[in-house]
Amino acid sequence: MTEITRVSLENEMDIVVAHKRMIGVAQFFYLTLSTQSTIATAVAEVSRVVIDKTDQGWLSIGIEKTGDKFSLIGQIAFPSQVEVRSSEEGLKYAQLLVPEFKFDKQKDASIVQVGIGIPRSLKVSDTRVNEAAEFFRVTQPTPPYEKLKLRNNLLNQQAIEKDEELKHSRILDEKKNEFISVASHELKTPLTSIMAFTKLAVAASQTEATPKIQHYLDKIDHQVFKLHQLIQQLLDISKIESGKLDYNMQRQDWNGYMVDMMPILEHLVPSHKLSWQPCTAAVLVSMDILRIEQVLTNLVGNAAKYSNPDTAIAIQCSSDEDNLTVCVHDEGIGISPQNLDRLFDKYFREEAVADKYSGFGMGLYITSGIVREHKGAIWAEKNKEAGSSFYFTLPLSKV
User: Fold this and answer.
1) Is there a contact between 264 and 389 (Cβ–Cβ < 8 Å)?
2) pTM of the shown model
3) Does domain 250-395 have CATH number 2.30.29.30?
4) From the candidate CATH numbers 3.100.10.10, 3.10.450.50, 3.30.565.10, 2.120.10.30, the one assigned to the domain spanning 2-143
5) Residue ranges per domain, the chain?
6) Is the separation of the CB atoms in 276 and 300 below 8 Å?
7) Between vectors from CA 318 to CA 313 and to CA 322, what angle results, nearest 5°?
8) What pLDDT digit, counting tens, does each position of 241-253 carry?
9) CATH T-level assignment (fold) for domain 175-242
């Protein structure tokens, strides 16, 4: 672990200092407010347990790197002869709050470590970690104990109230995520069997059923596919938020890749006029071909969904020295200017279209997550005449 800052744990004043210091480090890496509060509360709970037992503890806040994944870590250490049990209420509560929790009793010192993964989309690097250590070394003031003592009672009361709110919110959020993940996995198994038997029934109906039965089977097949997509989106969101969405990066010629993709995209939107403009020169990118296929199908599918049949959907490609830029242009209903920045938020849907078009607001959120994991950018623009344009970039793979 690369240590960024350290706090001695001697009395109750240091609990507040530890809480604020962890908040400060989490803010430096642009973690969300809920994430900041979660790990800071976990650190405060463990610090409280240690301070109740000894005045010789200390907190070390730093960043731990495992492969290409970074985690924000708080290590609370104290002399090994101090008796602290894993059954302590503060430790049990901290363990519920954070995904990474370790209690290690060593010869010289006992260490309680709490941690939380930093999303890859925040693009933490070794350089950024070193900048954080230097920033807190230079700017961090000496803890103002006198002021903290005067405000201690008020802060403790506020902390208790916030902890209760956070605990309740955290439990609800965990139950929701657990239900979505378990339900999606449980639904996927029988749905796979249904899809297989539906395909067999559709194939057999070509020679063994009336046109009416064929029509019904085609409808069933289409709806089963939509249900499969919904379940897969729920699983993808769960993996994106936990940093477990896997990528198989390969070097690809973009024009060649699009030649293979066009039949798939044309089959996806048969009622629209789909066209593709290749890059003028060969462009090599490093990407997961299945995940980028997911990006393209989401954007092209959305373009068709919000535009009339027989209108045009154009995929345009260009490149500069550093990036490939892909644009999916449609002639649909367009986007409200005030919502352009919110389109890629999870579950967001414009009120004006929510009642007319089905959906859950997951596709663009997943798409943006995939693009950002590829070190690219994604955004949308409202066209001057009609419709909208969605852009995403991929870094060029340089020899």
Assistant:
1) no
2) 0.49
3) no
4) 3.30.565.10
5) 2-143, 175-242, 250-395
6) no
7) 140
8) 767 677 889 999 9
9) Helix Hairpins (1.10.287)
User: For the residues 255-273, what does the mean pLDDT come to?
Assistant: 92
Neighbours of 397 (CB within 10 A): 17
pLDDT tens digits for 148-195? Answer: 544 665 677 778 888 888 888 777 766 766 666 666 666 666 777 777
Digit-coded pLDDT (tens) for 331-343: 988 888 888 888 8
- Strands (DSSP E) contained in the chain are 2-9, 57-66, 69-79, 100-105, 109-117, 250-253, 273-277, 284-287, 312-319, 323-330, 378-382, 388-395
| 175-242 against 250-395: fold identical | no
φ and ψ at residue 140, rounded to 5 degrees: -70, 120
Check: CB of residue 317 under 8 Å from CB of residue 328: no
Write b or e for each residue in 70-91: b if 16 or more Cβ atoms lie within 10 A of its Cβ, otherwise e: bbbbbbbbbeeeeebeeebebb
Of 74, 14, 16, which is closest to residue 43 (Cα–Cα)? Answer: 74
Over residues 372-380, mean pLDDT: 92
Asked if 43 and 9 touch (Cβ cutoff 8 Å), the reply is: no
